[in-house]
């Protein structure tokens, strides 16, 4: 069941952390935002790769030689448009689309909230 | 005569039993095991029922003169000895054609979906194999199989704490790495071929989700994976149209399963479906064997006629 974790997965995780943040992050800040213990140099390498690919942008940090990294917004806006178009257009997308969670109806949601609340008590 | 009727019915009953008990027991075993079991067993069951239908058709098709000449059996004897009536054979032929058509349609649609997904990824302008972030307030994450890309909205990423973010990504990655869409596609094709398996595809989807949940739990922790599911489920604004893939019951079950101990192998979940499919395979073998005997008799009769002709007309 275990799957080998490669650079691609770490890249995705760092990318997600950049997006989740409210502003640009230094490599050290990114490292804090990750679940697990990644080496500082690994985080730096990944950030550099994201920058090279145009997925992240960077600005010099106030102090020292470090950079602050932020996600490239234009690409993500473009992705959002494409995503909506794709999901609206292709009715046959279900065959290849594995959503984290399907759409829930209002009734479904109530049932679920009740269940979760019942569980916590 | 009775074998000709009983064996095909038993084959049908075996696949029907699997079609009911396989999905009913699916949540009991380890998700990965059950995904493999359900998918492979549904293939075997669909193949068995198709062979049985073909066997019912054979005595009628075999009476065609060209075929009889080609395979050297006697059309007359076949017509006389045929264990199935013309009506049954014609019905079986029609059914087999319709079911084959359905299965082909499922596969074609699957391929079309994969093509459109790849085109979508090209439009996204992203190298395959990574994460594509969509700047959007909706809460959405999905894996695009065939294109090996995970799409997540900023709405989702901003909402989750680091550990849960990782759980969602690992869940989607598991779908891609283990090619879960192929399991679902195969189960769909099998159920198109044998409608008695209609419950199997949604069951395979469910165990694939559980499989991905377990992988996410393995990469993070069971509480984190459960929390991510619960948070996304309750945060997302509800909408009317429900493609009944993950209704509340299924999500609640997934969360409950993550809150429990890791799943262990349970013999019953494995043995019962296998027994039903085995019964179907045996009944199919008996059907085939019986039909083979009929054909052999017809062939022997044809041979007889040939020898006779040879002797008389020299």
Key features?
heterodimer, A: 121 residues, alpha+beta, Arc Repressor Mutant, subunit A, three-stranded antiparallel β-sheet, extended, B: 314 residues, mainly alpha, three-stranded mixed β-sheet, 12 helices, elongated
TL;DR?
Chain A has 121 residues and is an alpha+beta fold. Chain A has 5 helices and 4 strands; from the N terminus they run H-E-H-H-E-E-H-E-H.
Q: Would you write up a description of this structure?
A:
The complex is a heterodimer of chains A (121) and B (314). With 121 residues, chain A is α+β, with helices and mostly antiparallel strands. Chain A is 54% helix and 12% strand. Chain A contains five helices and four strands. Chain A has a three-stranded antiparallel β-sheet with strand order 1-3-2. In chain A, α1 packs across α3. The longest helix of chain A is centred in the C-terminal third of the chain and has 17 residues, at 73-89. The mean pLDDT of chain A is 79. Chain B has 314 residues and is mainly alpha-helical. Chain B has one domain (2-313). Helix content of chain B is 75%, strand content 4%. In chain B, a hairpin with a 4-residue loop joins β2 and β3. In chain B, α2 runs parallel beside α8 and α9 (200-219) runs parallel beside α11. The longest helix of chain B is centred in the C-terminal third of the chain and has 47 residues, at 267-313. The radius of gyration of chain B is 26 Å and the shape is elongated. The chains are: A alpha+beta (121), B mainly alpha (314). Chains A and B meet through α1, α4, β4 and α5 of A and α5, β1, β2, β3 and α6 of B. β4 of chain A pairs antiparallel with β2 of chain B, so a sheet runs across the interface.
């Amino acid at each position: 069941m275990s799957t080998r974790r490669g650079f691609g997965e770490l890249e995705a995780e760092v990318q997600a952390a950049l997006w989740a943040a409210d502003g640009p992050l230094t490599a050290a800040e990114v490292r804090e935002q990750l679940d697990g213990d990644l080496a500082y140099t690994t985080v730096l390498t990944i950030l550099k790769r994201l920058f090279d690919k145009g997925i992240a942008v960077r600005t010099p940090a106030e102090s020292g030689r470090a950079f602050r990294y932020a996600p490239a917004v234009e690409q993500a806006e473009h992705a959002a448009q494409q995503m909506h178009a794709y999901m609206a257009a292709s009715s046959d997308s279900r065959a290849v689309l594995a959503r984290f969670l399907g759409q829930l109806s209002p009734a479904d949601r109530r049932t679920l909230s009740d269940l979760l609340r019942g569980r916590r008590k | 005569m009775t074998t000709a009727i009983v064996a095909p019915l038993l084959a049908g009953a075996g696949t029907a039993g699997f079609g009911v008990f396989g999905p009913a027991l699916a949540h009991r075993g380890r998700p990965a095991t059950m995904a493999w079991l359900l998918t492979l067993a549904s293939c075997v069951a669909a193949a068995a029922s198709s062979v049985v239908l073909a066997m019912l058709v054979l005595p009628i098709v075999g009476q065609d003169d060209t075929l009889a000449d080609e395979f050297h059996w006697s059309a007359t004897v076949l017509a006389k000895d045929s264990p199935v009536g013309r009506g049954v054979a014609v019905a079986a032929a029609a059914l087999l054609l319709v079911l084959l058509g359905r299965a082909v349609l499922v596969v074609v649609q699957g391929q079309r979906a994969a093509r459109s997904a790849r085109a979508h990824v090209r439009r996204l302008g992203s190298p395959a194999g990574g994460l594509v972030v969509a700047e959007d307030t909706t809460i959405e994450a999905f894996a695009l199989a065939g294109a090996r890309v995970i799409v997540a909205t900023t709405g989702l990423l901003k909402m989750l704490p680091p550990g849960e973010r990782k759980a969602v990504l690992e869940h989607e990655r598991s779908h891609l790495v283990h090619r879960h869409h192929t399991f679902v596609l195969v189960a769909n094709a099998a159920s198109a071929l044998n409608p008695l398996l209609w419950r199997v595809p949604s069951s395979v989807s469910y165990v694939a989700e559980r499989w991905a949940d377990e992988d996410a739990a393995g990469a993070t922790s069971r509480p984190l994976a459960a929390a991510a599911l619960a948070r996304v489920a309750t945060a997302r604004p509800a909408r009317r149209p429900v493609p009944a893939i993950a209704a509340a019951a299924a999500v609640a079950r997934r969360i409950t399963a993550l809150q429990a101990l890791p799943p262990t192998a349970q013999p019953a979940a494995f043995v019962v479906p296998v027994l039903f499919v085995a019964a179907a395979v045996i009944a199919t073998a008996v059907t085939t064997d019986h039909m083979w005997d009929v054909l052999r008799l017809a062939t022997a009769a044809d041979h007889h006629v040939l020898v006779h002709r040879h002797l008389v007309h020299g």
